[in-house]
Amino acid sequence: MMMRTRPHPALTAFAALVFFFLMAPLVIIIGASLSDTSFLTFPPQGLTLHWYENIFEVSAFKRTMVTSATLALVGTSLSLLVGIPAAYALNRYRVQLPSFLSTVFVLPILVPELVLGFSIMKSVTTGLDFPIFASLVIGHALLVLPYCVRVVSASLSSFDFSIEEAAVSLGCPRWRAFFTIVLPNVRAGVIAAFILALITSINDVSISLFLTGPGISTLPIQLLAHMEQFFDPTIASVSVLLMLVTVGVMAVVELTLGLTFLTK
Amino acid sequence: MTIRRPGWILVLPATLAVALFLGIPVLDTFSTTVTDSTGLFSNYEKFFDSRFRRAVLWRTTEIALITTIASLLIGFVTAYVVSRAPGRIKSILIIAAVFPLLTGVVVRSFAWLVILGKNGILNDFLLAVGIVAEPLSMLYTEGAVIVAMVYLFVPLMILTIVGVLEGIPEDLLQASASLGATPVATFWQVVFPLAMPGLIVGAVLVFTGSFTSYATPQLLGGEQQMMMGTFLHQRAMVTFDWTGASTIAVIMTVVTILIVLAMGRLARRLNPAAV
Question: Are B52 and B195 in contact (CB under 8 A)?
Answer without folding.
Answer: no
